[in-house]
Write a structure and sequence with these properties.
- The protein is globular and about 65 Å long.
- Helix 15 packs parallel to helix 16.
- The strands form 5 sheets. It has an 8-stranded parallel beta sheet with strand order 11-10-9-8-7-16-15-14. A two-stranded antiparallel ribbon has the order 1-2. The protein has a two-stranded antiparallel sheet with strand order 3-4.
- Helix content is 28%, strand content 13%.
- The protein is an alpha/beta fold.
- It is built from 16 helices and 16 strands.
Amino acid sequence: MRRLILLLGTLIVLTTVGTSAVLAQQVHIVQAGETLFRIALNYGISLAALADANGLSAPYLIHAGNEIVFPGSNAPAPAPAGSAGSPEAPASYTTHTVQPGESLASIAAKYGVTYLQLASLNSLANPDVLFVGQVLRVPAPAPPPAAAEPVSQPVTSPQPATTTGTYTVRGGDSLAKIAAQFNINYFELAKMNGIVNPDILSVGMVLKVPGAPPPPPQPAPHESTGPPVTVAPAPVSTANTGGFELGGQALSFAHPGHMHNARMTWVKRQIKWHGEPAGNFQHVIDSAHANGFKVLLSVIGEPGGVAANPGGYYQNFANFLGGLARGGADAIEVWNEMNIDREWPSGLISGANYTQMLSAAYHAIKSANPGTMVISGAPAPTGFFQGCTTNGGDDDCYMRQMAAAGAANALDCVGIHYNAGIVPPDASSGAPVGSSGHYSWYLPRMMNLYRSFFPTKPLCFTELGYLTGEGIGALPGGFAWASGNTLGEQASWLAGAVHRLRGSGFVRMFIVWNVDSTHWSSDPQSGYAIVRPDGRCPACDSLRAAMGG
């Protein structure tokens, strides 16, 4: 319904090492705390290319002292990191017949290889194109290890000298951030703690870490207009959270104290791509991390570019998103409200066309940084079109088109918007409008609808907000439906939404629309803002309580 476009005043460009310098050095010796992703970033090489040059597959576990060679160098590829150093016997192969709903990435995961390695093994020029019944060459399962010979004397197992401390997860932490504090790869930290999904942490979780824990950080200064901020919040119950996390869409970082007080661990920033290099937006990622947040980048491009050359634009846009992932973006939302002609070129609007872009983006992002979460663009919730045409479509049939095109194979989380709230978040009927029967007025019905299209994927609410003009002014005509909403209802309903989403078991993320907009016109963005013109944030206290205090 409204778009926040990030205005960039100063463009900060990442400096990378040229190819000639890489070839001259040929070998990099891994230092304590380095990851393959960070090495690739430092030398301006794609993560996938560097992994292939060294015979590594995800997760890319490397250790201090390993030798890393560069693509195109004359240095021999070392044995995979962590091996004994001797060459392995040639791998044996079998075949796999492609089944409905499979992608190259899902098949590769079954056989313990990357999708790029599988594409190379089968000479596939385009890894996005597979056919049901297609026969692929895949690695055969490894034989079981031979039984160890009995030993005549007791053997003392080496003690894990590094796992001597613990660390309690705080608001704003990520596994990668914690790992960096202890000079360890975040995959190794996940393995040490039996964590299957390194994207999911809960405040209060106690992790095993190498050595003694670092001293707690000094409390950050908070705003004088808001309540005191506790940087290390009291542990919250992790029961039934399902990895649920809260965040807010912010135009700036003017109110990190309010956001931390509300127990937000994510910040969403929207950027528009005009062909710039990804490095121009590195400061957005860095400032989010510096303020203690994981960052979701909602990225849109130019509809005119899509119209001019759809296939070429999809790949160029995907390459740009890959650059953001290499720069450390924790999550990327691929486009926004692409079912309406303001955001996607008229004549080309369809869930199938968008899924082509999403698939290219997914492969580029995961190749650059497997830890970056890929969220599908959330369509505009609407019944305006009464169906789907190439000039615009309602979100229900558009999502059905995406599902039929195989979008489930190219996303980690399903993007969804809800910002037409005029009833409590548990209501499924009774909206005081003429179109009260439409699902888009009701949070539970929106959740169930989107869940029905992608039953195996979590939902990510990348916009969810309640509009009120209280303390600001009369709402413009197009938003008169919210004239009865009060500031107290905004605070109460946002907290109620936390309870409903968190308790569902299938919602991964809730981004509050919005934190700090001051825009007030025919599109009253500041009426959704939880930080009000007088600097107060009543909703922050209710959100904090809903998240467990």
